[in-house]
Design brief:
single chain, alpha/beta, TIM Barrel, TatD-like, hydrolase activity, acting on ester bonds, hydrolase, Metal_Hydrolase
Length: about 220
Amino acid sequence: MQVPYIDIHTHRLDIIQDGFNRSIINIALNNNETTVEGDCSIGLHPWYINKNTEKALELMRTMIQRTNVVALGECGLDKNSAIPFEKQQRVFEQQILLAITFQKPLIIHCVRAFQEVLASLVKAKFHLPVIFHGYRKNWTLAKQLMHKGYYLSIGVHCLDGSQDEVVRNIPLTHLFLETDTYTATEVATLYQYVAQARSIPVEMLKQALYHNYKFVLKK
């Protein structure tokens, strides 16, 4: 069997899904994005919370029951957002409860708010898989998150070498890769970089991340 590349978080609606590539397409319900046929995640991004949020949450309660919706997110907290932080927390915690109700993993957007995100997860007693997408912090924080059983998804920014300590040391059992909003870079480029940084074959990396994909998303 051909083991596919896994792109755990992308905003590309035109992505081709085949035996060589599997992508989880992010649908931002509060940003007027459309639905897709392939596997996707749905969420309310903390940048775009607005007066239509309650309507978006109602839509989420309906859409999350579709078989192609495999995760909830991206959702989370962002201290660089213009949205009041308390409002972000309320909306995030509502989404955590939805994920529990429908037994979906979370894809987390977190900027300068890791302690608050962790506190919200503990408050809700969330025990399903959690993926911190676009991780670009240090190895010390990475170890703290992995100790709690969480996954880290690393994106295109790692190609400049800034995440090499994390890339080289993170157990493959806690790793995902993603292209996010970067349409010019294919996820295969990330696999090649990470495999070279770790001095392992690309096929070994593909096998490991495919296993994570199947376990987390129940594929």
